[in-house]
């Protein structure tokens, strides 16, 4: 849609109400036993299994892809009666450099590759290079592109520049889905988070995503509540369902359940599926597998028994 500056400027966020709402969530909601295993298996299908490190190698990316295709040990799946289901993570997320490797490693699995393009994580490369990077990631086979916005546009209130940038990224993605990373830890206020969320959705983002995982503060429940309310408002006004991806620091089964509860309460059942919900995480899968093992055997295993990449 066109940029609706009036809507962007009118947005307000009540900080204390937001904090109160999310503070009560972990105490109010809990799931146990079989229900917990089911929620965790659902969470697993929404993970963008991620490696975004300076020391990434083709070998690590291939190992991560193998894990994405078979995320839970076969004996555990058998014990919980899930052997007839094809369970995979939602995507594998890598730097542009490793897109072709991941596409090759995931051939035949149906798992899409997500690329962090546009000069991730700071997003301060020259604009034409960022657009070019998106095009090259798509040409290498990425079906999803995670772009990073220019935080300066938000911090200076230049909503038109943010909108134009996002529109160009959207266009460069072609048929690939685009997730807009707001880097919420950098843009300081919940009001900025809400405004940036709206602008990115107006400019065509398929998903809005909290963080790169590299900011000082990454995904939080308060930021998530703010972004989910914007997604809800956007759907009410346009009929378009935009997806949500919290990312960065979500590493335990307990964490992810809280995000799932929030999604269900705020947006409903549709937003618990991978087409509208992704979790950007590098180590969460290991804890989910540990919890599933505990569910089956009654004992916790050490993290070293759950290598990812
Ligand atoms: O988008 C994904 C994040 O970079 C992963 O962050 P994490 O390593 O804290 O799980």
Quickly describe the structure.
With about 300 residues, the protein is α/β, with parallel strands linked by helices. It has helices spanning about 5-10, 15-30, 35-45, 60-70, 75-80, 100-105, 125-140, 150-155, 160-175, 190-200, 220-240, 255-265, 285-295, and strands spanning about 45-50, 90-95, 115, 145-150, 175-180, 205-210, 245, 280. The protein is built from 13 helices and 8 strands.
Q: Can you describe this structure?
A:
- It is a single chain.
- The chain is of the alpha/beta class.
- The chain has one domain (5-305): Aldolase class I (TIM Barrel, Alpha-Beta Barrel), CATH 3.20.20.
- 49% of the residues lie in helices and 10% in strands.
- It is built from 13 helices and eight strands.
- The chain has an eight-stranded parallel β-sheet.
- Helix 11 (221-238) links the parallel strand 6 and strand 7 (243-245).
- Helix 9 (159-173) crosses helix 10 (190-202) and helix 10 (190-202) runs parallel beside helix 11.
- The N and C termini lie far apart (40 Å).
- The model has no long low-confidence stretch (mean pLDDT 96).
- Residues 50, 52, 93, 212-213, 247-249, 251, 280-283 line the site of glyceraldehyde-3-phosphate.
- Glyceraldehyde-3-phosphate binds next to strand 8.
What is the topological layout?
Elements: H1 5-10, H2 15-28, H3 33-45, E1 47-50, H4 58-69, H5 74-79, E2 91-95, H6 99-105, E3 113-116, H7 127-139, E4 144-148, H8 151-155, H9 159-173, E5 177-181, H10 190-202, E6 207-209, H11 221-238, E7 243-245, H12 253-267, E8 279-281, H13 284-297
Helix pairs in contact: 2-11, 3-13, 7-9, 9-10, 10-11, 11-12
Bound molecules: glyceraldehyde-3-phosphate (G3H).
